[in-house]
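Design request, tokens follow.
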């Protein structure tokens, strides 16, 4: 098995440690990982803004860069969902179609493909898990609370292996943080209020750290925490699972 590591542009620019932790974590499980150097944005920001017809070159480059791999893994639920649902190629449509079924967010790759049964990591802190909308309702990383169905959470399943980590209970465990990509620009006031509410839930329930599978959401909440001069920090789940 050879995995192509896809590091979304905002992770590369603002949170490179999450990309490094993803690589190291996969290698700990014996996965051979390669990083295609020509990769760039998946095109999600343009598509979310109504310009999907302008993402063709992004799609072609992604397809060209990752077509040879058995799987593609990325530390970003929103980018992965975009690729799963929208990746297309005029030059190589068969390769693009195959890739759509082979792109995985890190957590789902660990649980669904590698089927991790144990994990050695240490993170002695109280942690709140943010269920991003793309991960929750798109990738089905956790059960939606509005459904009368048995509950599950793939992020929490993995975090329960981490020594010293205490998962806190949230009052509204799968509420949106309000980031929503370009929504936070177009509807700044609404986005900000939703983010403050989401942060308050974690803070009031004693979180020292907020984690999740989507750094875009964590970045949004981190900005609010910093403005509030809060001691609560955000950290991508890969960094916790890779902590020693």
């Amino acid at each position: 098995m050879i995995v192509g590591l896809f590091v979304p542009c905002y992770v590369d620019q603002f949170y490179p440690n999450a990309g490094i932790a993803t690589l190291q974590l996969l290698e700990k499980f014996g996965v051979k990982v390669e990083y295609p150097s020509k990769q760039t944005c998946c095109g999600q920001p343009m598509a979310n803004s109504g310009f999907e017809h302008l993402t063709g070159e992004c799609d072609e480059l992604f397809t060209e860069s990752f077509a040879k791999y058995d799987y593609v893994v990325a530390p970003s639920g929103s980018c992965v969902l975009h690729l799963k649902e929208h990746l297309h190629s005029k030059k190589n449509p068969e390769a693009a179609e195959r890739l759509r079924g082979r792109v995985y967010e890190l957590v789902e790759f660990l649980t669904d493909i590698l089927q991790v049964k144990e994990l050695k990591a240490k993170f002695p802190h109280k942690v709140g898990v943010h269920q991003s909308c793309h991960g929750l309702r798109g990738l089905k990383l956790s059960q939606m609370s509005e459904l009368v169905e048995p509950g599950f959470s793939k992020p929490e399943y993995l975090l329960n292996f981490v020594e010293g980590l205490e998962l806190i209970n949230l009052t509204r465990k799968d509420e949106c943080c309000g980031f929503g990509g370009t929504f936070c620009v177009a509807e700044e006031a609404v986005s900000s209020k939703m983010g403050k509410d989401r942060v308050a839930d974690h803070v009031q329930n004693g979180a020292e750290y907020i984690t999740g599978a989507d750094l875009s959401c964590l970045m949004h909440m981190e900005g609010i925490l910093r403005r509030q001069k809060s001691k609560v920090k955000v950290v991508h789940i890969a960094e916790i699972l890779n902590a020693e």
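Comment from the thread starter after seeing the answer: thanks! The beta strands are 2-5, 32-34, 71-74, 103-105, 126-129, 166-167, 209-212, 233-236.
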